[in-house]
Amino acid sequence: MKRRFFVGLLAAVSLCLPVQAARPAGLQVDGELLQTAAYVEEGTAYAPLRDLLDALGGWTVWWDGSAARAVSEGASLSAEPGGVLTVNGTRYPCVVDVVDGRTYVPLRLTAEALGGSVRWDPWLDGAAVTSPGAEHDAMDYYWLARIIHAESGGEALEGQIAVGNVVLNRVSSEDFPDSVPGVIFDDENGVQFEPVSNGSVTKEPTELSREAARRALAGENTAGDALYFFAPALSQGTWIDSSRAYRQTIGCHRFYR
After folding, report:
1. Strand 22-29 to 126-130 pairing
2. CATH for 80
3. Is residue 2 part of a domain?
4. Which of 92, 3, 110, 101 is nearest to 47 (CA)?
5. Secondary structure E strands in 186-252
6. What does the pLDDT profile of the chain (257 residues) look like in tens digits?
7. Residue 36 and residue 34: Cα distance in Å, rounded?
8. Are both 82 and 59 inside the same structural domain?
9. Measuring CA to CA, which residue among 28, 31, 29 is closest to residue 211?
10. Fewest Cβ atoms nearer than 10 Å: which of 171, 182, 200, 204?
11. Which of 230, 225, 223 is nearest to 252 (CA)?
12. Is residue 51 part of a domain?
């Protein structure tokens, strides 16, 4: 049974009983991983309200003694522990919980009520929130920036964009999965990218790698129609050299169709 919040008890004690049948989950908003985890219970992801709104940007959040309140330009929200989320005057009966002093709300319900969208990310083991008006899908941007950083973090911007282009070219190709993370974690014919094998794909990207991901997602292309690349200093690339058409060299990588 989910732990409930009782206003009378909160005045006297800090309510910190374990949430049963719940498990922690990652949460990122527009490519930024939140330090405070969400949790999943009975198939629903719950997010820390203040952290979620801070990540969305432009919200002022406070606790008025009975509920969490928040306002943004032209928008308002309240979350009453025990069961009602109100967004811009529309009431949504739901579970609102308080855990260790943090108010948690149903993630998908809250994000969509605010005009955003949510995707479950099995590789993050968590949720990806795309804010209203975001230029790129949060899940695509999150993983594209990371694979660019892991594969070409020491390269100039042109070379980093090119690595992003290869991933996106594969998404467009009938021979590969049709999503950015699907391409990155594709293992049908063996792991496609070494950073997936060694775990470096999960490392925080630099701002330059983030910029490369944004530019690649926006359509900037430095790799043409390339579907493959390798660094001769690190790999012989025998199969690629013998079976794919060479396109160009950018930095330390050779690109092939």
Report:
1. parallel
2. 3.30.457.10
3. no
4. 110
5. 228-230, 246-250
6. 333 333 332 322 222 334 446 899 999 999 999 999 899 999 999 999 999 999 999 999 999 999 999 999 989 999 999 889 999 999 999 999 999 999 999 999 999 999 999 999 999 999 999 999 999 999 999 999 999 999 999 999 999 999 999 999 999 999 999 999 999 999 998 899 999 999 999 999 999 999 999 999 999 999 999 999 999 988 877 789 889 999 999 999 999 99
7. 5
8. yes
9. 31
10. 204
11. 230
12. yes
Domain that holds residue 47: 7-130
Instruction: Tally the residues of the chain.
Output: 257
Who's near 97: CB < 8 A, 6+ residues apart? 2, 3, 4, 5, 19, 46, 81, 103, 104
DSSP β-ladder status, 102-106 and 44-48: antiparallel
3-state helix, strand, coil in the chain (%, to 5): 30, 30, 40
Same domain for 113 and 157: no
Annotate 107-137 with DSSP letters as a single string: HHHHHHHTT-EEEEETTTTEEEEEPTT-SS-
195-198, Cβ contacts within 8 angstroms, sequence gap of 24 or more:
195/146, 195/147, 195/150, 195/151
> How many separate helices (H) and strands (E) can be counted in the chain?
9, 16
